[in-house]
Amino acid sequence: MDFYVLGRLQMRNGGCAYTLRRTKPKIVLAVLLAHADQPVSTDRIMRELWGERPPQSAAANLYTYVCSIRGLLTAGRSKAKILTGAAGYVLNVEDDCLDALRYRRLAARGRAQLRDGDLRSGVALLGQAARLWRGRPLADLPATPEVEQWVEILEEQHRSLLRDWTDGRLRLGQNEELVGELRAGVAADPMCERLYVQLMLALYRSGRVAEALEAYRDVRRLLAAELGLEPGPELTGLQGAILCRDPSLANGDLSTWLTGCHG
Q: Mind listing where the DNA-binding region sits, in residue ranges (predicted)?
């Protein structure tokens, strides 16, 4: 059985889906998946479900929720097991059975390939990871503290992966096809200077020089209005290179522009 959290919570085995219909068992499963192969105390799970004042029936209810999850694991012939011990509950899950773990492994392999200079393999691996993303993680669950913390971690990991993937694709010359993605990116995260660097490069290398300079003016106005700041050295340096039509922007190594800008 495979578990999917990079989007709505799902459990699948082949073509069959297994569904927890009630919200609280879903929250229990999400907390156990967030701490896969690690014990999670019953007190911790109960706080996630009921806050600081759980009802007297909390322990019994939690046991019922765990039993319902175990029932689905059995029905789906899953190798994953929920174990009970003095420290609480542990959900044993193989890496390949949880999309968040597959995502993390592919991302690490892709970045390693990029560092070793194998652009095509690195970009391909990061693309495989990106395609596992189906939308906001655990989108069908309420924003309880542990769930929300895990969602924020997963979303930040995804933003970082997309930026690294874009760097690799720019180095491979995939400029025109990146423009739309990067425009959507700066609309969603308008304070990220790295996205503007990538957008300006994609536009310039697509022959859209005026639009590249307009993107710089846009971010400069935004930073001044919102933060009272000027763009950082990577953005200003790139603008200067575009104005003098630095040949390295079209043909050379882009490392000067794609490293050091982490906003």
A: 1-93
